[in-house]
Fold this protein.
Amino acid sequence: MRQSPFPSDDDLPTWLHALILLVLVAPCAGFLVRFGMSARVTARLEPLSGPEAGQFFFGPEPLQGSAARMAGRSLLVPGAGFLAIAWRFSRLCSDGLLGHLLPLSLLALSVMLSFRARALASHA
């Protein structure tokens, strides 16, 4: 069998291993954090393009005011969830219960916040 030109995962230093994990999740987390922060600061969230998931959670109309800020929170939380996934798989995380439950808890919280944002938008 031919040798791989890349080093084994165990041969990498801890800082490089953690950096690679952050680089892998950064595009997903960055997209969510960017739109979430924008909605929190401007109190306006345009309909998310791309997959229909964004329109499912927040509707096809732009959100204004408290509904947009709540939707911004709902986008920030899964961004933090992606970072929690990277932390979970890094060598810096212990095998405790927190590392296993944090990403799933953040996902559940995000869904609850998105339904709250949709309810606020329907009352406006």
Q: What stands out?
A: The longest strand covers residues 44-45. The mean pLDDT is 83.
